[in-house]
Design a protein that fits this description.
Number of strands: 13
Largest sheet: 5 strands, mixed
Number of domains: 2
Order of helices and strands: EHEEEHHHHHHEEEEEEHEEEH
């Protein structure tokens, strides 16, 4: 029987944020949307039903899921080697950068965002088509010329009324999303490989790194120098930007075009700062091996994770 619960956040990645570093180990989850905290295994987060399923004649419905499972096995080995002290270079670097690209592009939230954009565009085009009866009939005539078997029994007035009521949703096929995601992964990979990467190490004194359901943070180095209309949307190929990726509870990668490859010991302040970046990047959940991770509160002081919900529930 084929599993239909598909992970957009790989279990081999999430287990690096559990207490025992295994798929069946527990991690602490803080859910901002539900305003609650609980413990669970990687199996129960970062996935939804049929996320990678394709329904195309002649193609295995699980082709994408099987291909990703093969890649994730290789990525799991790379993550394990990096944790054991291997250098971030060669095949390890290649596999982890591909993992970063996947996480940056694939999520239910991004799919819904893209669906909204495409649906809005389609709705506007339909509005233009229904702008006049002549325009509508012209389009119908073109369809019949292209396909003589086309049969339309919907009158202009009916179509216009339906469109004006807005009592409908416009869906986008899952296969279309998957196709676009593959293209986007290929598009951002060169900029990830072109960056230099700093590997930051945490320890017992500094506390752990956390991750989220949106584990890739892309920001401007100096946002105040960027025109306001572009500050919230840097591109992976833009200079003076930084990519942050928590690799595990012990390691994080920071990628910049202007930096140099190196490994550093993270201070308590740096780990708190990077965790705060990840908190601001989350869609709705954060993941950590324990609740006493560090982050910066609204007043600029370093707090522990058990204060995170109270900070969010009491905005100033």
């Amino acid at each position: 029987m084929t599993a239909r619960h598909h992970h957009y956040l790989s279990q081999c990645y999430l287990k690096g944020f559990t207490k025992g570093r295994a798929k069946k180990s527990k991690l602490t989850v803080v859910d901002f949307k539900e305003k609650k905290r609980f413990e669970t295994t990687p199996r129960n987060v970062g996935g939804i039903r049929d996320f990678n399923r394709v329904d195309i004649d002649g193609i295995d419905q699980n082709a994408i899921e099987k291909s990703l499972a093969e890649f994730e096995g290789q990525a799991a080995s790379a993550l394990k080697k990096l944790h054991r002290g291997a250098r971030f270079s060669g095949e390890i670097r290649e596999l982890i950068l591909n993992l970063i690209a996947l996480f940056a592009i694939r999520s239910p939230e991004r799919r819904e965002h893209m669906r909204t954009i495409l649906a809005d565009t389609a709705d506007k085009i339909m509005g233009l088509t229904l702008g006049s009866k002549e325009g509508w009939e012209s389009q119908i005539a073109k369809l019949r010329k292209k396909d003589p078997s086309y049969d339309n029994d919907v009158a202009y007035e009916q179509a216009k009324e339906f469109h004006d009521r807005k009592e409908y949703t416009i869906e986008v096929a899952r296969e279309y999303h998957i196709h676009n995601e593959i293209a986007q992964v290929d598009a951002i990979l060169p900029s990830l490989f072109a960056r230099n990467w700093v590997l930051v190490e945490a320890n017992e004194e500094t506390g752990p790194f956390i991750t989220t359901d949106n584990p890739i943070s892309l920001t401007w180095n100096e946002p105040n120098t960027i025109p306001p209309m572009f500050r919230s949307s840097p591109g992976f190929g833009c200079k003076s930007t930084q990519v942050l990726f928590p690799v595990s509870q012990d390691l994080a990668l920071i990628g910049e075009f202007e930096a140099e490859d190196k490994t550093i010991k993270g201070s308590h302040e740096l780990i708190a700062l990077l965790n705060t970046r990840m908190l601001s990047n989350a869609y709705k959940q954060i993941y950590s091996p324990k609740i006493d991770f560090s982050f910066y509160g609204k007043d600029g002081e370093i707090l522990l994770g058990n204060r995170i919900l109270s900070e969010l529930n009491n905005p100033e």
